[in-house]
Amino acid sequence: MRVVKELTREEVRISIFSWNNKYILKFELGPMEQTFKLSEMDVLEEKELDSFLGGDFFEKVKARFDEMGKSFRSQLENL
To answer: How many domains does the chain have?
Structure first.
């Protein structure tokens, strides 16, 4: 597995890997993680992956983390 890029944006840790002819985009916030797999055939140049690191896609990732966090906290309260 090759690390393509690692960064932190708005408290979200982002890692992009290349593995088995796929790019793996991993977003982490606290105890939560979202992972997306993208065929290397769908990307002409690695710099095109930057489109996943901002804009509407990244906003939806953050919104999903909010929803995940609420569900997780709710479940912890019910233990």
So the answer is: 1
